[in-house]
């Protein structure tokens, strides 16, 4: 097995900094790749939390002026992850969310902040760190999208490049004047075959146009984003590059998400004995001020509250949930209007609807361990991770027929024809009526105890780990290296 060195470039990495699924992937994939002969180091920005955790990191390089202020490149490790950290305080030493101000507005210099990250990635690709010269630079989402661009426009021998899309909705769009400020050649970069995007520039488009390979996080999403609607302005480009585009399903860290050892749940359990799920359900009901009842199906939601996630459809489904005798426990934050409407629904239906605005990792684990079903009614979903966690914990997923939800859940009505065991419920089209119908179908199955137990056990038997997925990435890297030899 040929050893491979890969530099991953990511704006967030679990368990250090997390706002979404990108962090989970960036944190789990390097560890899973070790078994496949891939040495991956991850480059990330030096946010305050990163600098606290890597206080003893070694300084590799120092610059008096790096994109407008002093900067350093550090090397260290945390929780088994080998890291490079770009410590540029004037760009990254800011409180709270990595991308937005306390008011939820994008930092006005985000273009410069993440161009700086991509520039240093390209320099490492060119050999800035002699002890680690990568064979491949793997960029994640728009924040790293300029890494393939810098490597391309440097016009020097370079490593192979891979661009992974975690969500097409976020494209890193900026004014064209930024090109000069971030050190890219105006004549060639501001072009339809470069960064140019409807008169401005897009970091994501740069990566998709100029990387050697493109991946996204599920096979169905790889197909969806080649359409005009799913591609969100980039469908034509992705159709042109379809020969280098592939979908590789995400996995989850099955050590972190393991009901037999999980320190965050009230009672641990395994596939051999689901008895303690009822005890976790009772604790979850207490946490959300829901009526204590084992006979009422408890629906869990762990989600950003947004139109994309279909959380407005769930509000429309509340009458169905109430009429069917179900309960709802929702954890999430996002759109202010949705937050207010969910809080109002909880006030109007005490004991039946419980809502907590925000994110709490411990509570997220308890929702997986204690809810009977997990809802993911997304209008589009590149892969989705919560439904994979649900399978691992015996919570039956009820999901929309989109993206990775389509690829990871086997509907109760498809089991016979697919040759696979059913693991949940899927609905389509993504409408309030179709969602309500799926909820009614799930409620009927819940009260048929043998059927529900088969769904749970099939989910628990599903491989949701990174083991096979990591092998697909390793094969992609080796194929890329061979094509460039």
Describe the structure.
With 485 residues, this protein is α/β, with parallel strands linked by helices. The protein folds into two domains: 4-251 and 467-484, Glycogen Phosphorylase B (Rossmann fold), CATH 3.40.50.2000; 275-460, Glycogen Phosphorylase B (Rossmann fold). The chain is built from 22 helices and 18 strands. It has a nine-stranded mixed β-sheet with strand order 3-4-5-2-1-6-7-11-12, with helices on both faces. It has a six-stranded parallel β-sheet with strand order 15-14-13-16-17-18, sandwiched between helices. A three-stranded antiparallel β-sheet has the order 8-10-9. Strand 1, helix 1 (21-33) and strand 2 (38-45) form a beta-alpha-beta unit. Helix 4 crosses helix 5 (146-153) and helix 12 (275-287) packs across helix 16. GO terms for molecular function: alpha-1,4-glucan glucosyltransferase (ADP-glucose donor) activity; alpha-1,4-glucan glucosyltransferase (UDP-glucose donor) activity. It comes from Bradyrhizobium stylosanthis. InterPro entries: Glyco_trans_1, GS/SS, Starch_synth_cat_dom.
Main CATH class of the largest domain: Alpha Beta
Distance from N terminus to C terminus (CA atoms, Å) equals: 16 Å
CATH superfamily (homologous) name of the largest domain = Glycogen Phosphorylase B
Structural class: alpha/beta
Radius of gyration: 23 Å
Helix fraction? 25-40%
* DSSP summary: helix tally: 22
Strand content: 15-25%
- Average predicted local confidence, pLDDT: 96
Which word captures the global form? Answer: globular
Low-confidence stretches: none
- Number of DSSP-assigned strands: 18
- The number of distinct structural domains comes to 2
Biggest β-sheet, characterized?
A: 9 strands, mixed
For the largest sheet, list the strands in their spatial order: 3-4-5-2-1-6-7-11-12
CATH architecture of the largest domain: 3-Layer(aba) Sandwich
The CATH topology name of the largest domain reads: Rossmann fold
